From TrEMBL:
Gene3D superfamilies: Haem peroxidase domain superfamily, animal type. One of its GO terms (molecular function) is heme binding. Residues 331-350 have a biased composition (Low complexity). Residues 316-350 are annotated as: Disordered. It is found in: Secreted. GO terms for biological process: response to oxidative stress. InterPro entries: Haem_peroxidase_animal (IPR019791), Haem_peroxidase_sf (IPR010255), Haem_peroxidase_sf_animal (IPR037120). This is Animal haem peroxidase.
């Protein structure tokens, strides 16, 4: 199953970045198929579009955000008011609600937390592990091309699929911390156009982008939010660069790391939660406004959406062998695998 493409292989997408790698591209096809599943049920195009969005938005509020910023913050921010749901945001308050925007603190720092979660390789199906970026000619997960038949995704390796036995080695996201996998230090030409002097290290791009856009330092954002800023010793900084303060992206990663790396900390979590929920509140067509009672069921998760879309490839169904001995629980298999290819994005004092 592939994205619809033109004659040169370019996907028809609102945002070409959804074709940046074969995992994201195939996740996008899940949403296309969800839309088609609603159409097959007799919904109009507009109804199918709306239902796709509401299911996605509901998962962001009830599954994704609680994992990334913590359930307490989400619960505090989402409030019912005047018959709709809204965001009780202290900092993200677009003046013109019909023209909401994405603040640079979000796009250039806080939401780039995801760069530290990317693995060097992913098991796409049982026993088939593929690097995110390989050398030219080698098999890898680079996108911007038709999806090769043998690189179909077994979603059971990424999400809990109801009714399907989980594999013992599901791909775990890396921790949110100041380590970043090695392939992201040399981005391929499908990600960064190969112009003279192009910066191919993602960490360097993030830090320079923040500098060029004049982002405030992490400590300054913390202070403005009324959060006690981390000290340079806590941040692991010793040099005098960056006005002796931490770039916001680094700060967000470090505060998450100090909290265990499973979710964002006080500053990063607040920025991400307020912006995402604030945008939902500003969008008159979101379920917050158009259908605040929308509820696909409290246990609804991405795996349910994949099944609902008819997008679970039956080749991925792990059928337990009834003659096999009872597996012994292995606590190590539960923990994210340390990635040997991890490097510090900011080696040395900053
Ligand atoms: C293989 C995975 C990924 C690659 C190769 C990648 C690569 C990139 C690159 C090259 C940029 C532009 C950098 C610049 O020039 O400033 C970028 C921007 C960005 N990335 Fe990623 N990224 C990946 C995954 C993620 C994830 C998982 C997240 C969040 C969860 C994320 C969030 C962002 C954001 C918010 C921006 C800024 C977008 C904008 O300003 O429009 N990325 N990424």
């Amino acid at each position: 199953m592939d994205l619809p493409r033109d004659e040169v292989g370019a996907a028809y997408l609102g945002d070409p970045r959804n074709d940046e790698n074969l995992v994201v591209a195939q996740l996008h096809t899940v949403f296309l198929r969800l839309h088609n599943a609603f159409r097959d049920q007799g919904k109009t195009f507009a109804q199918a579009q709306k239902l796709c969005r509401w299911h996605y938005q509901w998962l962001i509020v009830h599954d994704f955000l609680p994992r990334i910023v913590g359930p307490d913050l989400v619960q505090r921010l989402v409030v019912a008011k005047d018959g709709v749901l809204t965001a009780d945001a202290a900092f993200y308050k677009p003046r013109n609600l019909s023209k909401p925007y994405i603040p640079v603190e979000y796009s250039v720092a806080a939401y780039r937390y995801g760069h530290s979660m990317i693995r060097a390789e992913y098991e796409v199906q049982d026993g088939h592990t593929v690097p995110i970026f390989g050398r030219d000619g080698d098999e890898d997960l680079r996108g911007n091309r038709p999806i090769p038949e043998n690189l179909w995704i077994d979603w059971n390796y990424f999400f809990d699929i109801p009714g399907v036995e989980p594999p013992d080695d599901r791909n775990m996201a890396r921790k949110i911390d100041t380590q970043i996998s090695l392939p992201l230090a040399t981005l391929p030409p499908t990600v960064v156009a190969p112009t003279a002097g192009a910066i191919v290290a993602l960490a360097e791009r993030n830090l320079l982008r923040g500098k060029r856009l004049g982002l405030p330092a992490g400590q300054d954002v913390a202070t403005a939010m009324g959060v006690a800023p981390l000290t340079n010793a806590q941040l692991g900084l010793s040099g005098g660069g960056w006005n002796k303060k931490a770039p916001l992206w680094y700060y967000v990663l470090k505060e998450a790391e100090l909290g265990g790396g499973n979710r964002l900390g006080a500053v990063g979590g607040r920025i991400v939660a307020e912006v995402v929920l604030g945008l939902l509140a500003a969008d008159k067509t979101s379920y917050f406004n158009a259908n605040p009672g929308f509820d696909p069921g409290s246990t609804f998760r991405v795996g349910d959406l994949i099944l609902m879309a008819g997008a679970f490839d039956e080749r991925g169904r792990v059928t337990p062998d009834p003659t096999a001995p009872e597996p012994v629980p292995n606590p190590v298999a539960e923990a994210p695998e340390p990635d040997p290819a991890a490097v510090d994005p900011l080696p040395g004092p900053v």
